[in-house]
Write a structure and sequence with these properties.
Helix 5 runs parallel beside helix 8 and helix 8 packs parallel to helix 25. Helix content is 68%, strand content 0%. It has 589 residues and is mainly alpha-helical. The protein is built from 28 helices and no strands.
Length: 589
Amino acid sequence: GHPRMVSLSGLFVLSVTIRLLLVAYGHWQDLNLAVKYTDIDYVVVTDGARYVTEGQSPFLRSTYRYTPLLAYVYTGNIYFTMLFGKMVMILSDLLVGFLIVQILSLLRAKGIPLLQRSDAFYASLWLLNPFVINVSTRGNAESLICLMVLATLYTLLTQQLFLSAILYGLSVHFKIYPIIYAPALFFFIGTQYHKRTPKDSPKNGNHVTASPSPLASEQKCKQLEGIVDGNGNSKQRLKQRAKLDNNTKVDGKANNNNNNNSNSKRATTTSKNQEPEKEKLQFLLAEKEKEKEAFPFLAENRKTPPKKRLWSNISEFLLTTINRQSITFTVLSASTFIGLTFFFYLLYGYEFLYETYLYHIVRKDNRHNFSVYFYHIYLSTAQSIGLTSSSLPAITIIDNFQSASEPEFGTDFCGFGADSGTCSGSGPSDSFFFTFLPFLPSMVTDNILTVFTVVSRLNVQAILLFFPQIALMLGFSFFYYRYIIFCLFINTLAFVALNKVCTVQYFIWYFSLLPLVCPLSRLRWHTQGVVMAVAWALAQGGWLFFAYELEFLGKNTFLQIWIMGLVYFVVNTYILVQFLSHQTLIDFT
C-alpha cells in the first residue's frame, strides 16, 4: 500500500541524487585532477559520435569496438553537452530498477512465494549497488545492455513474444554476450507454449501463468525454509522422514495400550507437532512429481536398451521444445540481429564486422584484468597472429558497387545519404537500387570470401578458451531452462567468471539479475550471504592492491595480479555453487 510506494519513491529519489552528485564531482575531477573520473571508453565513444555527426564512420576512432548504434546514442554529447551520455546511463539504471520491481510484482501476482522482503529492498541491490553507480556515472554503457536483457525477460514473462524477440535481437546486436541466453530462451518458449491449451491461446486474450507453488502463501514457504530445495530431495531423505513418522505412530500406539495418561498427552502433542512435518513431506513428494512432469522423457522407457532410451529422450525433448512459437521467436530475433548487422555492414563494411564482433573472439588482451587466462595471454603476446582490421581489405558492398558501376555509368558514386546535387552525372545517385541489383551476386560472393579469409586466420587458442563457457552454458540451459530467471543468472555468472577478459563492467551483467534471484534463495543472508560478500570483496581488494602497485608505482606485480585473479575465480565458483544448492526453483513454463 502507501508505505510501499513511499519506500520505492524514496529509493528512486536517493538513487538519482547519488548519481547526479557523482556526475557533478566527476566533471570537476576531470577538469582539475590528473587522474580522470570519466572512463576512457566514454571518450572513445564520444569521438566516434563526433565522426558520425560529420557523416563519417565511428570506426575512424581507434579502439572504437562497439555497435555504431552506441555512437548514434552519444551524438547528444556533441549536440548538447558532454554529460548527455551519462544522463542516458543514469536513466537506464532507473529503468532497470523499475523493471526489477515490475518482475517481482508479477511473481507475487502469480502466487509465487517470495522471502519476506519488500520490492524496494531487492531493487536497492541494483539501484544502490556501488559498482553499478560507479560504472554508469563514469559513462560505461553496460546499463543500457542490462536494460535490454531485463526488458526481454519481462516481455517474455508477460507473453509478448514478438516484442521479446525483437528486444533480444537488439540486445545481441548491441553487445554479443546475450547470445549465451539463446538455448535457454528457445527451450523455455517451446515448453511454455507446448503446455498451453486452446482456451489459453493469445486469441482469447488469456495468459499462461507460472505453475503455482503447492504452498501459495509466504507463511508456509517460510515454514519450509532450510528444508525444501526446489529440486526435490533424495529418496533416502524421504524414507527417513517417513520412518520418523511411522515411529511416532508406533510410540503413540504403545502409550495408548499402557493407558498412561501423561504419555498419551505427550503422544497427542507429538502427533500435532508432526502435522507440519506431514505437510513438508507432501510438499517434497509434490516437488518430485513436478520434476517427473518437467522431464517425462527421462522417467520413461527405463527398461529399454540404452541406445533406444537415449534416442527416445532426445526426440521427446525436441518434440516438446520445437514448435511454432519457439521457431517464431528464433526467426524474429535472428532477423532483427541480422537486419541491423547487414545495414551497418552496408554503411561501414568489414571494419564494422571486425571491430564490433570478430575482435572480441580473437582478441588477446595482455592488459591486466580479472581473468584466469590473463597471465598466459600476457606471456604469449609476442605470438599474436597479428589479425587487425587493416590487415585485410575493407571490402564493402558499396565499394564493390562503386568499382562495378563506374565503368558503365562513367560517374563517381556518392553513396548512401548523399545529396544528388553534389554527384556528377546521373546514374547510381538517381536510381541506386535498380542499378544495385545486377551486381548483388558478385558483391555477396566477394564479401563472403573476405569473411572466410578472416576465419581461416583466427587464433585457434583464442577460440578454444570459449569451450568451458559453451559447455556450462549448454548444461545450465538444459537443466534450468524452466526456471528461466535463475537460468539466465547462473549462465551470466559462469560466463563472466570464465571469460578470457574480465573487467568490473562485466559484473554489471549479473548484478542486474541478482535482485530477481535473491527472493527465491534459501541462503541464510546474515551468515552465508555475509561470507560470500566478504570473500568477494577481499578477492577484489587484493587484486586492486597489486593493480595499483603496477599502474601507479611501476612495480612488476603481474604474477601477483594473476594469483589474485585465480583467488577471485575460486570465490566466484564458490558463490555459483552456493546459489545452485540453495535456490528454490520455480517452474515458469
